Amino acid sequence: MGTVILGTGSCLPEKIVTNHDLEEIVDTSAEWIQSRTGINARRISGKGEQTYNLATEASRKALLMSGIDAKELDIIVVATISSHMLMPSCACFVQKELGATKAFAYDVNAACSGFLYALDLGDKYVRADSEKKILIVGAEVLSARLNWADRNTCILFGDGAGAVIIGHQEGDCGYIGSNFFSDGNLWKLLYMHAPKSNNPELCIEENPGSHIIMEGREIFKYAVKAMEDAVRGLLAKEQISLDSVKLVIPHQANIRILNNLIERLEIPKEKVFINVAEYGNTSAASIPIALDEAKREGRISAGDTILFCTFGGGLTWGATLIKW
Ligand code: ACO
Q1: What is the CATH number of domain 3-172?
Q2: Second-level CATH architecture of 175-323
Q3: Which pTM value belongs to this model?
Q4: How far is the CA of 134 from the centre of ligand 1 (A)?
Q5: Whose CA is nearest to atom 36 of ligand 1?
Q6: Active site residues
Q7: How many other CB atoms are there within 10 angstroms of residue 66's CB atom?
Q8: Gap between the Cα atoms of 159 and 157, Å rounded
């Protein structure tokens, strides 16, 4: 142990889009969305709320909580699949906005699992050099990457960002471990094309544009079982019982996936942090936003063991344990 979270922050766009608002856009009903997903509303970016803007604001809040100046940061990693540019990375824009002149910066793409993968990388840097101060962000503006005529997907997602500052601290606390998996064979269950190739020999003709395409039922099936197995495997590896976990912060995909997971793992519901009703699925941002809210609501105290789990495109999935 030794890698601790020194501060958390989050940022949501101002505009709230309710299920009723979506009734005006696609053939759906507020009741259908609520009952099938548990989502009531989501935040959707407007002018001046690009992925890096949300990421920067979340990072400023995390820096403030940690008492660390942006100029002290050594590394910035942003987990995202929806930056406004392919290059430079979202992380480089965040570095510029923060004036984090010492830090090197790059993005991680592991879809909804990106934040936990990036946090794991951060832990490795801190273990290698206990002086390192690292900013890890999950940020998405998926509204820019949705087909707003596809009712199967456009009702599920929202925009937002969450951030943490990590560093070393002596004592019986910190990052315990993780249990990650990927299966590229299942990529077709959830994907998004890149822009069309300018090399005619590589051009994928059936590329309908750069938006999310999903086999909802199949994803549902895999997500629950995969997260359950990842959690059980991690708890066994670290010899920690679910009873001793104080709070579970899962990726906020939809309430039916979460309820299924809670049932299979037999976790008391009050131990699970859920905010999917307000924000929908914010992909890589969902866990750090939930973590920040849990922290600011006083649901996390020193010494608490926190369990995270995730599932997303790739497919990618896994679980992480930390002791606060
Ligand atoms: N409004 C009204 N009807 C709809 C809508 C909608 N927005 N979307 C689909 N339907 C219709 C379908 O067309 C279908 O109609 P049909 O029977 O006439 O063909 C009917 O509703 C049932 O469709 P299903 O796909 O079977 O609905 P289901 O109960 O499985 O719910 C859902 C769909 C919510 C997408 C579900 O499969 C799910 O939650 N899957 C997980 C997807 C997910 O969370 N992905 C996020 C990315 S991965 C991750 O973050 C974990």
Answers
A1: 3.40.47.10
A2: 3-Layer(aba) Sandwich (3.40)
A3: 0.96
A4: 38
A5: 216
A6: 112, 251, 281
A7: 21
A8: 7
